[in-house]
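Reviewers of the previous submission asked for a worked example of the structure-prediction workflow described in the proposal, so we include one complete record here. The input consisted solely of the amino acid sequence. No template or homolog information was supplied to the procedure at any stage.
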Amino acid sequence: MAEVLEAKKREDKHHSSSRRLRRNGYIPGVVYGYQTENTPVYVNDTEFEKLLRENGRNAVLSLNVNGTQRNVMVHEVQTDPLKNKIIHVDFLAVNMSEDVDATVRVVLTEESAGVKDGGVLQQALHELSITAKPDEIPDAITVDVSNLQVNENITVADIRGKYGFTINHEDTETICSVLPPRQEEEISTGEQQESGTPENLEGRETSEA
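From that input alone, the workflow returned the following structure tokens.
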């Protein structure tokens, strides 16, 4: 059963009203989507952040706006980078029987065989775009890398079909790979050489003068 989040309809839509709401411990927002008119709302910041922390960004919530409940997902969150506080939230009303698009983080699990042999694990995709029913969207997609050897990779094709949703990426896209130690050292050395100054540069200029 979806967690209930209490919300109030926001009648005053001026910026000064939004600032006042934030000062008083509320987050201004808007709800729109399935059978829902664009409706400005506000929610308690502590309650919303707690639900977000415990259920994840892709959870279905039951938003109770002035006594009317509807199933919603968090569509967008705006954050003040200086205060690290949520300042606005968009709720998307959803039909539980229809597919929706969502972005889900990718979590690599276990230690790969290649890393045990000295290789370096590199993650290329940290998020995946998927299509699924609202209640079938996971908080994270876990990828087991325990069998991944040096110079091997895991692509989208390797995990497609393991889950009950559609992955909206090409099969050839690399999720992660294990680089050999030497290649990692060469990359590091190359970056240092590009950013540094040749040791004999000053002497060469002097001799040419």
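The CA atoms of residues 12 and 156 lie 47 Å apart. We consider this example representative of the routine output the project will generate in years two and three.
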